[in-house]
Amino acid sequence: MKDGMLEFSDWPMFDRLMEDEALCRELIEIILDEPISDIEYIATEDDVRPTLTNHGVRLDAFVKTKGEICDIEMQTTKRGALGKRMRYYQGALDTQTLHKGENYKKLPPCYIIFICMHDPFGEGIPVYTLDVECREEPGTRVGHGFIWKALSAPAWEKLPEGRLRNLLHYVWTGDAGGDSFAGRLAVAVDNANEDEEWAMEKRALLTFEEDLEIQKQIAIEESQELGREIGLAEGRAEGRAEGRAEGRAEGRAEGLSEGIDRGEARLGALVEKLIGAGRMEDVSLAAKDADARRILFAEFDL
Fold first, then answer.
1. CA-CA distance, 208 to 231, in Å (whole number)?
2. Which residues contact 245 (CB under 8 A, 6 or more apart)?
């Protein structure tokens, strides 16, 4: 979000534009470099929960055509374990698509696409097409029926001239240049920003999420530092005890190192569980209050 205006890469804007069937279709076809079937419906900000007790996912844009299903995600911040996240999305979509008693052959071709404002896997390439193959005989036809794609917008210049290069250039820079599709996206973005009631609501929501992300990172950094301090104290105590028992300096050094590692791992595990549960206030409390931290350790059996 620049100068108070929502950009195409901001999720509220991305979701809104993907509700436009023509824009959504062309975006998918540019990324896949092939036509797709007629779109039957599009759902944005769609919650998918395989079972009531399982971890759910929220899809930016889920598209069902007469022949395929497709999930398109916009990623503005770098998150770890993208490969496992795509794996979970795939499982969730398959579970939703295949009804009880149906043959696996009824699973339609599925595409999961992540458009990233960073390099998702650190190899410096603009497009990662992730597929399944037989290691022993790569030409073997597995027939799994899905493809995952992760696009790195910052690497757009490494693509040859063409529509995908132009699309990623627009995503990264906001400059449509002379590309007709990017130009239509830019016009749609401008029109959406002129919807003042909608834009104001989404800007407020986006600002809140950004603030929450900043607070989360601060809390994580504080907790990591505190973890080192706790581990250091525990390590010193253990090191002194081991050193006295064994009469060797190695005991002190080893106890110190192990104590630091345990303290960091324990607090890190607590912070991860609290963040996963959306308990940001407790993350801050755990970083500052030793008594509260002990209670939380007990609550999560850490």
1. 34
2. 251
Eight-class DSSP state of 8: T
pLDDT (tens digit, 9 = 90+) per residue, 250-261?
Answer: 544 555 455 555
CB of 103 closer than 8 Å to CB of 121: no
* Fold of the CATH domain 11-194: Trna Endonuclease; Chain: A, domain 1 (3.40.1350)
Both tokens of 297, joined, read: 């350790």
Of 148, 155, 156, 191, the closest CA to residue 17 belongs to 191
Strand pairing of 69-75 and 110-116? parallel
Tell me 131's DSSP state. Answer: -
Per-residue model confidence as pLDDT tens digits over 212-250? 555 555 555 556 666 666 666 666 666 555 555 554 445
- DSSP class of residue 250 equals H
- Residue spans per domain, the chain: 11-194, 208-299
* 167 token code pair: 């699309």
Kindly report the pTM of this predicted structure. Answer: 0.68
CB 96 within 8 A of CB 48: yes
8 A C-beta contact, residue 221 and residue 213: no
Q: What is the DSSP letter of 20?
A: S
Q: Place 113 in a pLDDT band, splitting at 50, 70 and 90.
A: very high
Between CA 296 and CA 300 the distance in angstroms is 6
Please state, in angstroms and rounded to a whole number, the distance separating the CA atoms of residues 104 and 12: 35
**Rounded distance between C-alpha atoms, residue 98 and residue 75, angstroms:** 28
Question: Is 142:162 a contact under the CB 8 Å cutoff?
Answer: no
